[in-house]
């Protein structure tokens, strides 16, 4: 038995408004049209759904059961319509983000956005060494997540994380020689922060490995070639945190902030930015109050 959603909406409207006249006003129909739809629905069901007297209108026991099912069906149909209706928003979103901000959450985020806004094209730059701030200033990106020291206020603060020195579990510093380090190419914030800290430390060090790829840095560290700087949540099995060892100076925490270009707040970019603001926090990462 297939029920016409139009008839279901008429029945629910009569119940919620308490009468045929107000239901007709809600649905922008005539009272006779509502009466015809209810009569047709009752004929299809094979039993009365409403009890009518000259003074009042009530729902029968069968009507109460039918109302529950009808409401569930209409809620599902409305949700399906919202989910699959064509989006009026189109255009291009140009987004930049460091590798260590989203990790495995970037693909589902992009998939969610693409499902909701199929007419929008995404251009995404995922990199630790690209100067995302410069790209924002130049108008090459609409929005970007950037890393910055906690004393730098910019954009909307998303979360805070601690930088640490990391090495392989079996790493041993060479005796009587400078400490080997692995970094991303400049202008990586990890490298900038580490360099500023090292400049103030009485430590002999040198860069033995450089890679623009996070996989490359991890490979060098796990191979025991060098020490590097990671966020605490990036430290993986086979690595150890070596803060305070080998004369290494302490490192600060850093903020992840969402920044926009001057003309970047297009409707489609704003929708994508809202998804970023709604992302759940990573375990072990301190969420910050959002600032405009």
Automatic annotation (TrEMBL):
Classification via SUPFAM superfamilies: Periplasmic binding protein-like II, Winged helix' DNA-binding domain
Keyword line: DNA-binding, Transcription, Transcription regulation
Domain HTH lysR-type: 1-60
InterPro entries: LTTR, LysR_HTH_N, LysR_subst-bd, WH-like_DNA-bd_sf, WH_DNA-bd_sf
Matching PROSITE patterns: HTH_LYSR
UniProt superkingdom: Bacteria
Single GO MF descriptor: DNA binding
UniProt family annotation: Belongs to the LysR transcriptional regulatory family.
Protein name: DNA-binding transcriptional LysR family regulator
């Amino acid at each position: 038995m297939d029920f016409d959603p139009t008839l279901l909406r008429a029945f629910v409207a009569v119940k919620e408004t308490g009468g045929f006249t107000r239901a007709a006003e809600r649905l922008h129909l005539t009272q006779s049209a509502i009466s015809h739809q209810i009569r047709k629905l009752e004929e299809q069901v094979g039993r009365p759904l409403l009890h009518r007297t000259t003074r009042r209108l009530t729902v029968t026991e069968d009507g109460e059961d039918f109302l529950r099912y009808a409401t569930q069906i209409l809620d599902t149909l409305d949700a399906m319509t919202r989910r699959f209706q064509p989006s009026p928003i189109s255009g291009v979103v140009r987004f930049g983000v460091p590798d260590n901000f989203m990790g495995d959450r970037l693909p589902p985020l992009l998939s969610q956005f693409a499902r909701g806004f199929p007419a929008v094209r995404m251009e995404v730059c995922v990199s630790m060494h690209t100067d995302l701030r410069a790209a924002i200033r130049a108008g090459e990106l609409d929005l970007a997540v950037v890393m910055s020291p906690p004393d730098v206020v910019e954009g909307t603060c998303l979360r805070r994380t601690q930088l640490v020195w990391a090495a392989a579990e079996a790493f041993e510093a060479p005796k009587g020689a400078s400490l080997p380090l692995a970094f991303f190419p400049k202008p990586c914030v990890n490298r900038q922060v580490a360099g500023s800290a090292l400049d103030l430390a009485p430590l002999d060090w040198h860069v033995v490995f450089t890679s623009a790829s996070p996989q490359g840095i991890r490979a060098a560290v796990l191979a025991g070639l060098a020490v590097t700087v990671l966020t605490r949540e990036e430290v993986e099995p086979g690595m150890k945190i070596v803060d305070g060892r080998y004369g290494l100076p302490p490192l600060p925490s850093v903020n992840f902030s969402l920044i926009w270009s001057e003309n970047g707040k297009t409707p489609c970019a704003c929708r994508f930015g809202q998804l970023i603001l709604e992302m759940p926090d990573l375990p072990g990462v301190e969420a910050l109050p959002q600032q405009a």
